[in-house]
Specification:
Helices cover 21% and strands 36% of the residues. With 284 residues, the chain is α/β, with parallel strands linked by helices. It binds fe (ii) ion.
């Protein structure tokens, strides 16, 4: 079984790198941590980077997960190939671009690009955003799925994810004590469905709602409170239609043995306890 330890970073292609940098830095509140030709790196916590925008096709998106060792990486590549997934072994140059020791790339059954990385670089410097968004770190991704049951099997049987809750057929999956690190949302395409950063408090969620609304950023859901993870949340649209989320107060599942996954309805009440309604296709 592939033991995912944590989510590591997201890589997003864009045809407007300057615009994407402006959004990520001045609106989302991330810190530019590095630049290379055609790419800008952003940090949101103790890691060297958790988001990279690069010049390219906006459909070119990848999410990375940390695994424990190069031996585990080799095993993961072998077992994925056995299941007929095409596996790309990252070159030294590609690994350097990602600030990791080694990595492999493959596609999940829907076609989402997944990277498994070993020894991602930490930063010796604290994160401090250019605006006071209250970000405490990159925390989870929503992924598109064209078959939720099939992809749930992939993430829970081939990898170590466990179902925390389901909203309709959409599973919220954990790989550690955090309620969810991956969420699969049924739709007809592949891609990253949303990118989540945690913020310190509900005040930060509300503050960003006002700040970003004033700047004309398109709000797509919230402020609200998830009835699954109990997190207070806000979703808004960034470059190339990517949905970003801030949330605060996500539940921890301390005792795996006592926890039972729960079923919530696939309507606004399954997403929000405050009555907010999503303007997000995959949440409808
Ligand atoms: Fe989320």
């Amino acid at each position: 079984m592939i033991q995912l330890q944590d989510v590591s970073y997201v890589r997003l292609g864009t045809r407007d790198l300057e615009g994407a940098e402006f959004f990520a830095r001045d609106y989302l509140g991330l810190e530019v941590s590095d630049r290379s030709k055609g790419a800008v790196y952003f940090k949101s916590d103790e890691r060297a980077h958790t988001l990279c925008y690069f010049e390219g096709d906006p459909a070119d998106q990848a999410v990375a997960f940390v695994i424990g060792s190069e031996a585990e990486l080799e095993q993961a590549a072998a077992s994925l190939e056995e299941m007929n997934h095409q596996v790309h072994l990252g070159t030294a140059e590609e690994a350097a671009i990602r600030k990791v020791k080694a990595f492999i790339r493959f596609r999940d059954p829907t076609g989402n690009t997944i990277e498994l990385v070993v020894r991602p670089e930490n930063s010796g410097r604290r994160y401090h955003g250019t605006r006071d968004a209250g970000i405490t770190g990159f925390s989870h991704v929503g992924l598109c799925t064209t078959d939720a049951a099939r992809d749930e099997r992939f993430w829970t049987r081939v990898c170590n994810a466990r179902v925390s809750d389901r909203i309709g057929d959409a599973p919220l999956l954990r790989i550690d004590e955090v309620h969810h690190t991956i969420a699969l949302f049924p739709t007809n395409r592949a891609g990253i469905q949303h990118v989540n950063h945690q913020v310190k408090s509900a005040d930060d969620v509300q503050r960003s709602f006002n700040y970003l609304s004033e700047k004309g950023v398109k709000m797509v859901f919230g402020p609200g409170r998830h009835v699954t993870s109990m997190a207070k949340f806000l979703y808004f649209e960034g470059p190339d239609g990517m949905v970003f989320e801030y949330s605060s107060g996500v539940e921890s599942i301390a005792d795996e043995l006592l926890y039972r996954e729960r079923q919530f309805p696939a309507d606004p009440t399954g997403f929000c306890g405050w009555g907010s309604k999503p303007d997000i296709a995959e949440f409808k």
